[in-house]
Design brief:
The chain is of the alpha/beta class. It has 18 helices and 13 strands. The strands form four sheets. The protein has a six-stranded parallel sheet with strand order 5-2-1-6-7-8, sandwiched between helices. A three-stranded antiparallel sheet has the order 9-10-11, with helices on one face. The protein has a two-stranded antiparallel sheet with strand order 3-4.
Length: 398
């Protein structure tokens, strides 16, 4: 048994953040019914890059965030389509949506309407800026939230301009926040017997990640500057280029300082009582970083990592995506999974990274074809006949 078996989620969301959340929950055992627009579906079905197969193409973007779900096509602009969603909402535990503020209220699919009819329903709204506040009706995407949430101001080389991280961290972290919120509300409902509404703002989620940067501001009144890979309050903690042109990240505490210096041939620093303390190393940042950089540049990356491992200094090679996904660790931990897709044949994805004891581990199954489960869901859950479903299709409600 997987931990979320018996939980059903009606997923009206699109693109990345919420589909990522519902995929995680699906692979931990929840039944996720993904509602998509007829004919076009989730807009990411058309996003590049496209994976090419003998039987057709599929968006790798869509595949990455929609495994293990059922797909039902419903036209939310149709009164009959809206009625389908209302009826399905009475049979599920969670409804998840990420429409702009006020959109679903026009269709009487808002949280006030549905939770009044279904008081045990957990209704989750994920919007860019929340349902209240001066930004509530603004539009935004991942990079806008990165910019307005502070992370982009912290990312980049010293003296350089802001840089976005290489992944859509606002979307991805929002998906994790949403999954945490859903799990929390499911647990809370066990205690109270009542559902409720979760109003999640992606901008709020980014502000919530400021953590140490916010702590420095609260403690020192400091607006942290961009520092590349360096840590504002710890040395060593940075990326260094090695003799072979490859990079390594070294991050250590006081107990690692002497072993690091000795393996780099910096014995004088290893025995310097002042430099044994991080606070002094931070005060002498330019000198210490220059010395470390020069010494590290005399060694190849893999040799340096072996030396660090041998004496317990935390260090890791900076790997590209191919190196990560083909590493011996990824293989040993089964981080890459395979599933069979009707258009592509065997295709790969990244597993949900949990290992349970007492429950079955997450299971990855293929993403659905558009509308693949429409008839199954409408007949089994709503008791509609083939004639009913054909009537809805003729009316363009599904």
């Amino acid at each position: 048994m997987r931990p979320l078996e018996g939980v059903t989620i009606l997923d009206l969301s699109r693109v990345l953040a919420c589909p990522f959340a519902s995929m995680i929950l699906a692979e931990m055992g929840a039944t996720v019914i993904k509602v998509e627009q007829p004919e076009s579906g989730d807009e990411t079905r058309s996003y590049e890059p496209m994976a090419r197969g003998d039987e057709g193409d599929a968006s790798a973007y869509y595949l990455a965030f929609n495994r293990s779900k059922q797909s039902v096509t419903v036209n939310l602009r149709s009164p009959q389509g809206q009625d389908i969603v209302r009826k399905l909402a009475t049979q599920v535990d969670v409804l998840l949506e990420n429409f702009p503020v006020g959109t679903l209220k026009k269709y009487s699919l808002d949280h006030e309407t549905l939770t009044k009819a279904c008081p045990d329903l957990i209704y989750v709204s994920c919007t860019g800026f929340g349902s209240t506040g001066p930004y509530a009706h603004r539009k935004g995407y991942d990079t806008v939230f990165q910019a307005m949430g502070g992370i982009m101001s912290l990312t980049g080389e010293r003296g350089g301009g802001p840089v976005k991280p290489g992944l859509p961290v606002a979307d991805l972290s929002s998906g994790l926040w949403v999954a945490i919120g859903i799990l929390s509300m499911l647990l809370g409902r066990q205690q109270s017997g009542k559902g409720g509404w979760l109003d999640f703002s992606m901008l709020d989620g980014q502000v919530g990640l400021l953590s140490l940067a916010a702590a420095r501001y609260f403690a020192l009144g400091e607006v942290p500057p961009r520092m590349g890979t360096e840590h504002p309050g710890r040395i060593p903690s940075a990326a260094f280029v090695c003799r072979d042109g490859r990079w390594v990240q070294i991050t250590g505490a006081d107990q690692h300082w002497a072993p690091l210096c000795n393996l780099l041939g910096l014995e004088r620093w290893a025995t310097d009582p002042e430099l044994a303390k991080n606070s002094a190393r931070v005060q002498r940042r330019e000198e210490v970083m220059a010395g470390l950089s020069k010494a590290i540049a005399q060694l190849d990356r893999d040799e340096l990592c072996r030396r660090c491992d041998a004496v317990g200094v935390p260090a890791g090679p900076i790997l590209d995506v191919q190196e990560v996904l083909t590493s011996e660790h990824a293989a040993a931990r089964d981080l890459v999974v395979d599933y069979d897709h009707p258009h592509l044949g065997s295709f790969k994805g990244l597993r949900v990274p949990f290992r349970f004891s007492g429950f079955d581990d997450p299971v990855a199954s293929r993403p659905p074809l558009l509308g693949e489960h429409t008839e199954q869901v409408l007949s089994s859950r709503l008791g509609l006949t083939s004639e009913d479903i054909e009537g809805l299709r003729a009316a363009r409600a599904i």
